Amino acid sequence: MNIDRFAPWYRWVEYAAFGHALEARRFAFLDRLANARRILVLGEGDGRALEKLLLLAPNALVDVQELSERMISLARRRVGDSHRVSFRQADALTSKWPDSQYDGVVTLFFLDCFSESEARELVGRIARAMVPGSIWLVSDFAVPPRGWRCWHAKAWTWSMYRFFNIATALKTRSLPPIEKLLTEAGLRRLELEEARGGLIRSEVWIKQSIM
Length: 211
Ligand SMILES: C[S@@+](CC[C@H](N)C(=O)[O-])C[C@H]1O[C@@H](n2cnc3c(N)ncnc32)[C@H](O)[C@@H]1O
Hints:
This protein is α/β, with parallel strands linked by helices. The chain is built from seven helices and seven strands, in the order H-H-E-H-E-H-E-E-H-E-H-H-E-E. The protein has a seven-stranded mixed sheet with strand order 3-2-1-4-5-7-6, with helices on both faces. The longest helix is centred in the C-terminal third of the chain and has 22 residues, at 147-168. The model has no long low-confidence stretch (mean pLDDT 96). The chain binds S-adenosylmethionine.
């Protein structure tokens, strides 16, 4: 995926397609990290969530890892110079993090960039970097199991993947099973909010102490 060319338009295309619905999902549970000390944010994008997170988690040091140079510069511009944020332009698929390093992880509309096998490996690696008992905030798209909600979500996700396949050369063409992968990695869901007929979800997951 290369979102650089599209980065300045990303926010406006999102507002045109979803209004402020994605924004609401992005911000839904950020306050659950209020007491965090060390947070890993993967695929932050243009800094909208980061800006809020820095206010809501005043004692946290935040490591932001993002593939796109352009997104990093938009995020830097938004949050200004802060000794609490460290930006790293790197591919999460090939990054290593020390075990038990973070007491908070944030992935917002990020895990949908990967195939099931990529996401499984990545989720496992992120989970190992979390302290037991720590929180992972996930917001992403989902397809409900049946009924009109299922067809509605299938139509939206199909269109979005086609758009991103063209605009950013994203290779993935369907959602990985995020719930299953986090559960397999030893996390348990604490909270869930849905919007747009179950198409968009915000979730709070905890890394269980005994794995
Ligand atoms: C769909 S955008 C979501 C951005 C933002 N988190 C949001 O809520 O809108 C996915 C972001 O993840 C980044 N990304 C995609 N693959 C990545 C990878 N392998 N490593 C790090 N960042 C990646 C992209 O550059 C992009 O900024």
